[in-house]
Design the sequence.
């Protein structure tokens, strides 16, 4: 492995902010509904920030797999949106400093990236790392967005009930960072927002809202939520309007609502955590849900359908 210290650059003259929390928001494969990307964008646009560390993205990004946007205007190239992977220093609503690691999830050199990030966590005296993700689930958009919590110590996520038991999934850089921090004896936790399968390819701000709320409760940070509830309501209103005509898509949502409500009732009756089966008997699989809603949205886009063109 190449020297991890050569993968990043620390800013000079950075202020001493004690032992901050580090939020890791790396949009990549585990970002259904764009919730992780929206979280990073929301924090960067609503709070003032100072860049304290930058990574050498040329070593980490596959430009041919995700080509950065280049704007052409009439007869010239006007703007290049250069990718950036960096750690930003911010302050919450109570002026408490915290750090945000955001940018594209690395394509290459994961071991070196993790080692470099571990070095930065030590250099910046980070007391707790919080990773963000969002996953497609068989849940309806008409119910509150849920979240799966995980941590290097159970005490860090007290009060969160499990939705899943034992499952093997493809890894992500953020999840692997949490794993390595746990092995090193450092505190780290993560939240994965639940996004309805059928909305996983669209921006879903309700998931962003539940991620930021979960981080605030776990860390005590007062993160800005203004605008997220309104954006979530607008998305729901749009989806509801497309379902008003009924049909197969509406039936799928209704089945998911019944499953969700039944699981909630069972938890309440037992007075203990219950689990919602992701693909239980008689419920549509992720592929089936996707097929149904692709057909539904295609129908809405047909001339004369009254749906979006």
Sequence:
């Amino acid at each position: 492995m190449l020297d991890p210290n050569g993968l990043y650059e620390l800013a000079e003259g950075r202020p001493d902010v004690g032992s901050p929390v580090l939020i890791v928001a790396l949009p990549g494969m585990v970002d259904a509904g764009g919730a992780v990307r929206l979280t990073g964008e929301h924090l960067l646009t609503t709070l003032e920030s100072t860049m304290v560390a930058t990574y050498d993205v040329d070593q980490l990004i596959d430009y041919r797999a995700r080509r950065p946007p280049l704007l052409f205007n009439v007869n010239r190239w006007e703007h290049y949106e250069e990718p950036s992977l960096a750690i930003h220093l911010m302050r919450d609503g109570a002026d408490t400093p915290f750090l945000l690691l955001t940018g594209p999830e690395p394509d290459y050199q994961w071991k070196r990236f993790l080692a470099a990030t571990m070095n930065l966590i030590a250099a910046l005296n980070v007391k707790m790392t919080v990773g963000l993700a969002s996953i497609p689930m068989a849940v309806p958009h008409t119910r509150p967005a849920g979240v799966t919590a995980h941590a290097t110590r159970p005490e860090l996520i007290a009060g969160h009930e499990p939705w899943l038991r034992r499952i093997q999934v493809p890894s992500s850089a953020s999840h692997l960072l949490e794993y390595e921090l746990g092995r090193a004896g450092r505190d780290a936790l993560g939240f994965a927002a639940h996004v309805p399968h059928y909305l996983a390819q669209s921006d879903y701000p309700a998931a962003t809202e539940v991620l930021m709320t979960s981080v605030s409760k776990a860390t005590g940070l007062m993160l800005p939520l203004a605008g997220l509830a309104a954006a979530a309501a607008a998305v729901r209103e749009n989806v509801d309007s497309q379902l008003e005509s009924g049909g197969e898509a509406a039936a799928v949502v209704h089945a998911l609502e019944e499953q969700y409500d039944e699981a909630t009732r069972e938890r309440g009756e037992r007075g203990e955590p219950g689990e919602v089966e992701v693909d239980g008997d008689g419920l549509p699989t992720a592929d089936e849900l996707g097929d149904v809603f692709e057909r539904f949205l295609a129908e809405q886009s047909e001339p004369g359908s009254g749906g979006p063109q």
In short: Strands lie at 8-10, 21-25, 49-55, 70-73, 76-80, 86-91, 97-102, 128-137, 147-151, 188-196. The chain has a mean pLDDT of 88. Residues 248-270 form the longest helix (23 residues).
